[in-house]
Design goal:
Beta-prop_PDH, four-stranded antiparallel sheet, 351 residues, Pyrroloquinoline quinone-dependent pyranose dehydrogenase beta-propeller domain-containing protein, 43% strand, globular, mainly beta
């Protein structure tokens, strides 16, 4: 690992990165708020959601020097906007209580003609809503309203699906306590990071990465990990219920809080790691010793996780939290962008 101070900001801590790479600050958003979801518009301009400020901002880099030229407010006055994605000249924005589609003009980064496609259950313990366009379908993740409970609203703790016009809205997969981020691989499979419940101690339950399939039940609130029954939850349910659910693809350590994930498909990375997964660990809030606060690489071989290794560390020093990585996204050239909602930065990782 090579330590490099990020460029272009007053950040006073180093990040540990693999040798041969360089990490820098692409955009400093301290005056705006905490960046979460990242998405490139059809013109290649990076957008970031700022739920705490009710805004979506654009970060153009016209001279391509690896530092954002300006911060452009795309839209404001929203209710905790989180998810952003595009389909042609349409932009989809997921607020906490609805999904809205706008016409989008990349030449001037302007929105118009809003149309609410469907409502969502707003707020709750998990209020972020992430949206993805996969082929001709719209996918939205909605977290649980609680730590562990039986939900009254069928839309909670799910990934939902609809057509791009909002029609045929339904549950795609359920039993997902809080799958904040999910991605599509090269074979058309959906992978999602899942945050487990709290208050079972430092080592339980595991956080998870799941291979998410239509019609499957991933167990929450009764089950976690590899179909393990939550013996502390007395919410009813068949004792054999977990046998009928879908177990995790891989169990992360408890409380690391996995968020963004992406498959490596970049000429900047060596051939042997192409297809591996990078995953952000946002970091714990209730462990006796802090865990997470880093980005890891999952080596996938033969449909299994063979090894997990640290990819970027340095966001925690002792018990002092300096940053919390969130989303991960590659641009068309294979450059990696990372949002951080503690330091309020967007990083850029290049060679």
């Amino acid at each position: 690992m090579t330590k490099l101070l990020p460029q272009g900001s007053d950040l006073d801590f180093p990040l540990n990165i693999p040798e041969g790479f360089r990490i820098a600050v692409f955009a400093d958003l301290k005056k705006v708020g905490a960046p979460r979801v990242l998405a490139f518009d059809p013109g290649g301009v990076l957008l970031a959601s700022i739920p705490s400020a009710g805004k979506i901002v654009a970060l153009p880099d016209k001279n391509e020097d690896g530092i954002a030229d300006a911060l452009v407010e795309v839209i404001g006055g929203l209710d905790r906007p989180h998810g952003i994605d595009f389909a042609g000249d349409k932009i989809f924005i997921a607020e906490t209580d609805k999904v809205v589609r706008y016409d989008y003009d990349p030449s001037n980064i302007k929105l118009q003609n809003p149309r609410t496609l469907f409502s969502l259950p707003g707020g709750g313990r998990h209020f972020t809503r992430t949206i993805k366009v996969f082929e001709d379908k719209l996918f939205v993740s909605v977290g649980s309203s609680c730590d562990v409970c039986v939900e009254e609203d069928f839309r909670r703790a799910t990934i939902l699906i609809s057509n791009l016009d909002g029609s045929n809205f339904r549950v795609f997969a359920k039993g997902l306590r809080n799958t904040v981020f999910f991605v599509l691989d090269g074979e058309g499979k959906i992978w999602g990071n899942e945050m487990g419940r709290d208050f079972l101690g430092d080592n339980l339950p595991p956080d998870e990465i799941n291979l998410i399939e239509e019609g499957k039940d991933y167990g929450w609130p009764w089950c976690y990990g590899k179909k393990i029954r939550d013996s502390k939850f007395q919410g009813g349910g068949n004792l054999n219920y977990c046998d009928q659910t879908q177990g995790s693809f891989y169990d992360y350590p408890a409380h690391v809080a996995p968020l963004g994930l992406t498959f490596i498909d970049s000429p900047l990375f060596p051939e042997e790691v192409q297809g591996d997964i990078l995953s952000s660990f946002h970091g714990s809030w209730n462990s006796s010793s802090p865990v997470g606060y880093k980005i890891v690489k999952l080596n996938i071989e033969g449909g299994q996780v063979e090894e997990v290794e640290d990819f970027i560390t340095g966001w925690i020093k002792g018990k002092q939290v300096l940053g919390r990585p969130v989303d991960l996204i590659f641009d068309k050239d294979g450059v990696l962008f990372i949002s951080d909602d503690k330091a309020n930065l967007v990083y850029i990782l290049t060679k």
